[in-house]
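Mods, move this if it's the wrong board.
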Amino acid sequence: MTTRRFDSKAAIVTGGARGIGFATALRLAKEGASVAVFDLDSEAASSAAKAIAEETDARVIGLPCDVSDATATESAVEQVVTELGGIHVLVNNAGVTRDNLLHKMSEQDWDIVLGVHLRGAFLMARAVQAHFVAQKYGKIISLSSASALGNRGQANYSAAKMGIQGLTRTLAIELGPFGVNVNAVAPGFVATEMTDATAARLNMAVEDFRSLAADQNPVRRVGLPEDIAAAVAFLASDESSYVTGQTLYVDGGATLG
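Not the wrong board. Structure tokens:
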């Protein structure tokens, strides 16, 4: 029997149409949450919401939203509050990559990645905080990454993901007195379309790329979107009410060495 930790709760998952975002939205819906799937691609958001609704008994809506746009985030959050009757959980998952070595990285590559990951997390948190503070309850979980610790060819991505950790700690301090928990999850290698695309850029077969990643952590396997969704669900639940300002690395132990 599935645990229902989120009955009567409403959640937003940005970048929820695929990968980690989709797995997280599905997990929250299975546990009773009403879920809003945000994605830049309107059709993808709607399709993901439909798929989740068909697999669960949850109320699920899909909305287009550019998380790097302040007006768009504020409008989308208000639509969620209207359609789902409130907002209790925010999962900042939307992300893109524009990998390159520093001397090849354009300003646009830098701005796009920082804009979606870090500016997006800031704008979404700002858009929901008034609701959270008023009801003296809320959960914000943002996706950082093991790459925050530094990764060749990812100056933009690493900076954004470490920025997420600083943002998380600061918002935890500011919002904690109002009943709001703010945490981050930092995945290691996870088998998604994004990492498959990295394999393609390196001219490697996907299975070879995943096998190489698995060999670099103690548990000797790659992560799955469901692994990250499970961690997010814990931090979104009342079981984590005494946990805030933390970054949980979910990486099979890869960052232990």
